[in-house]
Amino acid sequence: MKIYILGICGTFMAGLAQLARESGHEVAGSDANVYPPMSTQLERIGIDLDNGYDANTLPEDCDAYIVGNAITRGNPQFEKILERGLCYTSGPQWLYEAILCKRWVLAVAGTHGKTTASSMLAWILEDAGLDPGYLIGGISQNFTQSARLGSDPFFVIEADEYDSALFDKRSKFIHYHPRTLILNNLEFDHADIFDDLNAIKRQFHHLVRTLPASALIVVRQDDEALREVLQMGCWSEQLCFSERDTSADFFLDAHNVLHHDNRDYPLQLTQIGQFNALNATAAIAAARHAGVTIETAIDAMSRFAGVKRRQEVIAEINGVRIIDDFAHHPTAIALTLAALKNNDGGRLIAVLDIRSNTMRMGLHGDQLGRSFADADLVLLCENPDLQWDLAKMAETASTIVEIRKDTQQIIDHLLHTSRQGDQIVIMSNGGFDNIHQRLIQALQG
Q1: What's the half-sphere exposure (Cβ side, CA atoms, 13 Å) at 332?
Q2: Number of C-beta neighbours around residue 416 at 10 A
């Protein structure tokens, strides 16, 4: 089978391409932004990439055209597909029909922590001697790639609530039909496609409706929005985890000790922060549904090495530590900064890229200013695309916020003011003008 993928370098679509290739299909694709690490990962396994969407590069002899959700009307290749009457589908639909319908799907959904929790879950199954398939929207340090078919029935997937395609506005996860589902947390996000939190709740409840009675939902009990989702109706088994309610099925205390069935299980993690311990708790509970004992899962977590771009230390130069983090929502920013905060005299400096659609639209403006509380300094770039007043937010923020004209000015400031013991955390869900490597080179020089 010959497949062509439009928007192939997105984390989800690149993973899908790997699965299609591993399944024996001939795969090629296109993207407007062909850049590492996804481009090199795809080229390494023999997938041809077209840079841009020139209609002339679209082959007309494919069995299927998979259209990424970044593709819009007016895209030259998609317009050609429509004009020629070629067979097309969305990535999530193809994934279910070609792969997931034959598997025991373990899905991880939520506003935050999907990549980390799904990586943890896949690693627990792997370390327990299984060979799970997985598709994760990032690269786990315990695996060499973001997707794999695997030989066991189990398939772990990061279940994104973003829409499937321009012709299918349902959330991606509606297509997955999991037998084990983690509902980690739920907040308003993706303001470019959802009007409000209630609209996202409806999508989450559509997901719950697709589960059989024998399925298991592992849900964070402390999350009010998730409780409201399940109150709309639930036909599957539930198991709750909590950091507040000692009566929960899995209770995680402030010392990272997991309490279940009158037994205590200390968690040993290399990732700092209570939110990472909660991610691990959810993964441990979900793995038990697949037959992995709690003891085995906890032992595996002691060897979990984390995920790229999640609190990843990418350099330490003359005592200055540089950390790459994906944080793209005020809650994620606040939790990451709280975890990184230390009291050894060094400063915590956050360099933030306001890139996500929701933050650019200003719907989290007040919350964003408060999320900086644990940083000693926050550096931002001017952004003419913002629909709100960046300077006003800086004036009322919970710490010192300084705005620079561009990334070079931020690098210059850090070069001249950083000192031994400082932690510089670069927060972005994009390339951020290659500031990571540029800062490293400047400090090394």
Answers
A1: 27
A2: 8
The answer on 132 and 150 residing in a single domain is: yes
Element (H, E) at 332: helix 330-340
DSSP secondary structure, 258-317, as one string: EEETTEEEE---SS-SHHHHHHHHHHHHHHHHTT--HHHHHHHHTT---BTTSSEEEEEE
250 φ, ψ (degrees, to nearest 5): -125, 115
Report d(CA 127, CA 321) in Å as an integer.
31
Helix (H) or strand (E) holding 115: helix 114-127
Q: What CATH number is associated with residue 131? A: 3.40.1190.10
* Of the candidates 222, 93, 101, 112, the residue with the CA atom closest to the CA atom of residue 158: 112
Tokens of 37: 């690490």
What tens digit of pLDDT does each residue of 282-313 get? 999 999 999 999 999 999 999 999 888 888 99
Q: Are strands 237-242 and 250-252 parallel, antiparallel or unpaired?
A: parallel
Give the domain extent around 294: 99-301
Is 181:211 a contact under the CB 8 Å cutoff?
yes
Contacts of 312 (CB under 8 A, 6+ apart): 306, 323, 324, 325
Quick one: 86 and 210 in the same domain?
A: no
Q: Are both 192 and 221 inside the same structural domain? A: yes
The CATH number of the domain holding residue 352 is 3.90.190.20
Name the domain count of the chain.
3
Residue listed under structure tokens 């031994």: 420
Q: How far apart are CA 117 and CA 104, in angstroms?
A: 17
For residue 325, list its beta bridge partners: 427
For 127, residues 6+ apart whose C-beta sits below 8 A from its C-beta are 296, 299, 300, 303
- At what angle are helices 11-22 and 91-98 packed, to 10 degrees? 30
H or E stretch covering 206? helix 197-209
Is the pLDDT reported for residue 360 higher than 80?
no
pLDDT of residue 37: 66
**Beta bridge pairs of residue 6:** 30, 67
Q: How confident is the model at residue 343 (pLDDT cuts 50, 70, 90)?
A: low
Three-point CA angle 186, 191, 193, nearest 5°: 100
Q: Which of these, 335, 214, 222, 230, lies nearest to 281 by C-alpha position? A: 222
